[in-house]
Amino acid sequence: MHLSNLIRGVHRCVEDFIAQRVKAAGLSVEQYRILEALHQSDGRSMGSLAAALFVDAPTLTKIVDRMVTSSLVYRAPDSNDRRKVLLYTAQKGAQVFMDLSSIETDLHAHLERELGRSDLGHLTRTLHRILESGPAGQVSARASTAPEVISGGRAI
């Protein structure tokens, strides 16, 4: 099996793990990821958020529009530059995210049981290096803006 297929398959397994848990809260995986990114750094521009989540801007806008309608997030002008709009977590969104806050810890615990602590640590470091190197060995702009990888509930 090609490496790209292995990565795609692992990605699908992780997304399914998360989807099973966020569905009960009425969220999609993408909506959960937006709340997660805003929890790490509230008041982000759409461009910054799109890069961090590996989502194109038009898709992100559609998802955020639905989240604004559901009162999970809200848009507000940047206090430093009124031409810029930033995205913030609304009170309802913060509560929903807190209710789901164990997802990453649960995922980490599951992977640690399957792989062992050492192999999971090695995998995490390797994935970080791949993201940082980008295609053809070039530094990826996305990797520098991506949310930090969580290991055992700790940012690494």
From TrEMBL:
Domain HTH marR-type, chain residue ranges per copy: 1-132
What Pfam families does the entry give?
A: MarR_2 (PF12802)
Annotated keywords: DNA-binding, Transcription, Transcription regulation
Q: Which domain of life is it from?
A: Bacteria
| Protein name, entry field | MarR family winged helix-turn-helix transcriptional regulator
Phylogenetic placement of the source organism: Bacteria, Pseudomonadati, Pseudomonadota, Alphaproteobacteria, Rhodobacterales
